[in-house]
Amino acid sequence: MTPPGSTTESPRPGFGFDVEARLPGALGRAGVISTPHGVIRTPAFIAVGTKATVKSVLPESMASLGAQAVLANAYHLYLQPGADIVEDAGGLGAFMNWPGPTFTDSGGFQVLSLGAGFKKVLAMDVTGLQADHVIAAGKTRLATVDDDGVTFKSHLNGSMHRFSPEVSMRIQHQLGADIIFAFDECTTLLNTREYQEQSVARTQGWAVRCISEHRRLTVERVDRPYQALFAVVQGAQYEDLRRQATQDLVPLGFDGYGIGGALEKHHLGTIVRWVCEELPEDRPRHLLGISEPDDMFTAIENGADTFDCVSPSRVARNGQLYSATGRLNVTNARFRRDFSPPDPGCDCYTCAHYTRAYLHHLFKAKEMLSATLSTIHNERFVVRLVDRIRDSIVDGSFAAFRTEFLGNYYRMAPEAKPAGT
User: Fold this and answer.
1) Which CATH number describes the domain made up of 16-309?
2) How far apart are CA 412 and CA 393, in angstroms?
3) pTM summary value
4) Quick one: CA dihedral 258, 183, 99, 47, positive or negative?
5) Is pLDDT above 50 for 6?
6) Which residues does residue 187 pair with via DSSP β-bridges, in sequence order?
């Protein structure tokens, strides 16, 4: 057993990362992540299938639209159906009939979403006073943090549970994803600087425990495919905390690194750059939780290799469709007799066979097919965009492509603009 904190590398059968092209004058690159269940050509958008499903869409459909990997939520799968059931099914991929690479998060995000009640909102307004024990208005705290782990109440039935770094590792080993994440504390931007410092130190201590337990379980379960463990870098919007957190994690010998935490949108590129400047070149970098086109270009330019977000499928279920000229709210009355495709330049199944008028009808009639067709389109739109960004890095046209694409996407009617713009 390698002692905690050791820089000694463990064998990583079936896992690796190779850089194929670099973005001149920036940290962006195109590469390939190898996993036991296939390769991921980066940059890549990782579709979110929280409960072992991308809501309303068959795994076969996700594969046909070009998704390279899916990410599921360890917290949710632990509560339902149970990590042991997923393990007995042959692991996450086999359980959900997904043949390609899989990711699972650690459950650490629930420290924020249950503890502070902000749900998925990470790009926050920090106007006003900071506090150490923030809670969203009208919400009840369902999770409490201490140096050993997190105690939380199930949102399903109110039962009490305890996650520690070791528990998170055991759950994720049972789930069997190709890439798993160390247990971390995700703070809000309303926490004080003092609390952010304490949280970074806590996450560092948990990282040491995670890698020790991960290595123990890897030896114990040597008959299973190797699972790559990614650390998660926290530190909110403080440069010194982000850089120090990264520098402290690198010697532990993780297979890759995640960049997490709450942030203000206009600081995204700066924070990603701080972290990536400290990271080793030969390890992949995953940014947790982004999906808007301008954020994708910014994150990739500053060094992110992969990223995930629930937004494409979530907004699709509410009638928001991506297009080359911005988002369309297909439930608006003006689309009632619009017989053009959702996005004329898109090559997805929905755009090839269905019209805005039909999707408008499905949403107004509250038909389930509305979510399926809209999600197929939005997921394909994002996957295709990131594939095109990858191609632009390889062929040297990144800057020109970014200018053209974002100029068209954000030059749109006010009704089509994404929320918050």
Assistant:
1) 3.20.20.105
2) 27
3) 0.91
4) negative
5) no
6) none
